[in-house]
Amino acid sequence: MNRSFLLHILIRIVLIAGVAFGIGWALFSGLTVLISIALFLALISLIINLIHYQNSVNERISYFFEAIKNEDFSQAFPIQKGDKIIQNLNQSLHEINRKIQQIKIENHQQEQYFRALIEHVATGILTYDDRGFVIHANSTLKKMLGLEQFTHLKQLEKVDDSLLHALKQIQQQDRKLVTFNGKQGKVNVSIRASSFKNKDQVLTLLSVQDINRELDEKELDSWMRLIRVLTHEIMNSIAPVTSLSESLSSFFQKDGQAISPDEVNEKMISTTIRGLDVIKEQGRGLITFVESYRKLTRLPKPKKKLIRVHDLLEKMLLLNKTQHQDSSIQLKISMESPELMIHADEKMISQVLLNLIKNSREALVGKENARIDLLAGWNKNGQVEVCVKDNGPGIPKELLDEIFVPFFTTRENGNGIGLSLSRQILRLHSGSLRVRSVPHKETLFCMLFNE
C-alpha cells in the first residue's frame, strides 16, 4: 500500500510540475491569454486534487486514532469502489477496529466474571489505591462493616477508628487480627494484605474474614493463596497486553500526535496485525484460565448409589492396562474385603481415581521398579479408605499444604486443578481427600468416605 500511495502522490506532483512548466512556457512564448488561463486553472485543480487526496487518507487515520483514544469502537470503514489505496486503508482499519472490539468485549466479560466471583465468596475482599480510594469492595465486606456504599477508607471512621488505623499500618503479606465494634456488636476479623501494580497505579488487596463465623484459620490461608494465584495468572496475561498495546500505539504517534499517512508502511501494518493477534491469544489464555476455575465452582450434585469397591478398582486396572500397554509400571490391587461397599457417584469417584493414578504415573517416570498400589479397607475410625500409593520421589513437606490450592502446580504442563477438583468431589460426598508422603520413598493419597 505504501508504494502505491507514493506512486499516486508522485504522479500528481509530476502533473503539477508539468502544468506549471506549461504556464511558464505559454507566458514567455506569447501564446493566447486563454491558453495561459486554462493551464493556470488546471494547475489549481491538480493542487486541490493533491490536497484532497492527502487529506482523505490523513482524515481516516486521524479519525481512527481519535476514536480509539475516546474508546469509541463503533466507527465503520466501508470498503467502497474507487481508489484502491483508500479501499486497502479502509480494510486495514476495519480489521484492526474489529480485533480491538473483540478484545474489549472479551476483557469486559472476564472482568464481569471475576467481579461476580468475588461477590460470591464468603470472605470480605477490598481493593484500594495509595490515596485511600476504594476500587472494589464486595458485598460480604460491606455487610460486615455495615456500610451500604464504600468509596474511601475514611468512611471506616464511622465504623471504628481502630479498624482504620489497622488498615493504615498493615504491610504487604502481613496478617492482623483486629477487633472492632460493628452494628451487630464486637467483630473479630483476620485481615491479610497483598499489593500489585495495575498500569501506573499500586493497589492494595485485602481479605477480611470474620473468624467468629468461619471454620478455621486454614480456610483464610487457602483463600489468600488462591487470590495470589489468581492475581499472578491475571497479571501474567494482562502485562504483555499492556506492553504490546503501548508499542503498537507508538508506531502511529510521534510527540503525542498521529503520524502522517505517508509514514505508514506495509511493515507497520503487518506488525500491528501480528501484535493484535498476540493480544487476542493472551485474551484467550485468560478465558481458558477462567474456564478452568469454573470447573471447581460448577460441580454437579453427586448421584449416589452403592458401589462395590472391588469392581471399581478392577475397572481402573483394566483401563490402565488398555491405555498404557507398554508401561513398565506395575499396578496392583490390595483389599481387606472383596465385599467392601461405598455410597457414592461412580463417575465422579472414577474421575478422582484416574487423576490420582495419572499423578502417580507422572511421578514415576524414569524410575526403576516403579509400582502403584490401589488399596481399600477401613481405618481406625471405621471410615472406608480407598488409596493410591506409589513408590515415587514423594512430595516435599513444605508443598503438602500447597498442592490442593487451585492452579498450584509443580509440573511444567500441569494446570493445577486436578487435586483441587478431586478434593471438592470428596467434600460433595461428605468425605475428604488426604495425603501422606515420605520423600524418596512413597506417596499415599486416600479418599475417606463417612457413609
CATH class bucket of the largest domain: Alpha Beta
N-end to C-end Cα span? 73 Å
Give the rounded overall mean pLDDT.
Answer: 77
- The residue ranges in which pLDDT falls below 50 over 5 or more consecutive positions are none
Main beta sheet strand tally, sense and closure:
5 strands, antiparallel
The structural class is alpha+beta
Task: Give the total of domains.
Answer: 3
CATH homology-level superfamily of the largest domain: PAS domain
Individual helix count: 10
Q: What's the alpha carbon Rg, rounded to whole Å?
A: 34 Å
Amount of helix: 40-55%
Give the strand content.
Answer: 15-25%
Beta-strand segment tally: 14
Shape: elongated
CATH architecture of the largest domain: 2-Layer Sandwich
Strand order of the largest sheet: 2-1-5-4-3
CATH fold category name of the largest domain: Beta-Lactamase
Question: Could you outline the blueprint of secondary structure elements for this entry?
Answer:
Blueprint: H1 2-29, H2 33-69, H3 84-120, E1 124-129, E2 134-137, H4 139-145, H5 161-169, E3 175-182, E4 185-198, E5 201-210, H6 217-251, E6 253-254, E7 257-258, H7 266-297, E8 305-308, H8 309-323, E9 330-335, E10 341-344, H9 346-363, E11 371-378, E12 384-390, H10 418-428, E13 432-438, E14 442-449
Parallel strand pairs: 9-11
Antiparallel strand pairs: 1-2, 1-5, 3-4, 4-5, 6-7, 8-10, 11-12, 12-14, 13-14
